[in-house]
Amino acid sequence: MLGDFITRTLLMLLGYAYPAFECYKTVEKNKVEIDELRFWCQYWIIVAMLSVTERIADIFISWLPMYGEMKLAFIIYLWFPKTKGTGYVYEVLLRPVVAKHETDIDRKLMELKAMAWDLVAFYWQHCANFGQTTFVQMLQFLAAQSSRMSSRGSSQKEEEEEEEKEGEGSQDSSSQSRSKPTRESSKKRPPATPTTTTINSNISQPSNPKHVQVQAVDGHLDSKAGEDGDSESQLHAARLRLRRSNSRPD
User: Fold this and answer.
1) Number of helices and strands in the chain (H, E)
2) Higher confidence at residue 92 or residue 201?
């Protein structure tokens, strides 16, 4: 693991950082040398091709021993001033293959560009339609939720009003039920028994048997009126009879 980390670090420094700095110095010279600029352009073309192919090649040949060290050595071989293997690799290996298939590569690249634009347009249209439908659904959902909340609020208000009406009705019924027994009890109460007044006779001593009979009849009527409790008329009639009997001559 440590050796692999060191190899990758050296590959980044010697394969990318140092050549990039040398290319920068070549471009910033007052008099740019075409051969040197051509050399660094060829170097970056080879490095780019290696970066593309090693993604696939590493799957099959990364198990080889000293694989990272061989890549590092090849990168140093490409830019080292005494070897300058970039020119040889470019002129002998890369240029003949690319020149032979250049037209096919251009056609494939154009087709890939067209397919990429078609895919971008398709997915853009699909995403726009999806976003529009989801936006409409969200608005419908929010409208439905608001209508539900308003209907719930109105139903709750109606329920509260019904409960209030039921409470008032129960209070009225309870008050009516309370008042009914009082009315019935007032109706059922018997009338007050009239106060029976004893007949104050001025007769101190009975002198005639008729007076005794009248007094007996009067006493009988008084007792009967007291037992019944509802016949003042009978008492009045008895008084009239008593007065008539008193008014008769002996």
Assistant:
1) 9, 0
2) 92
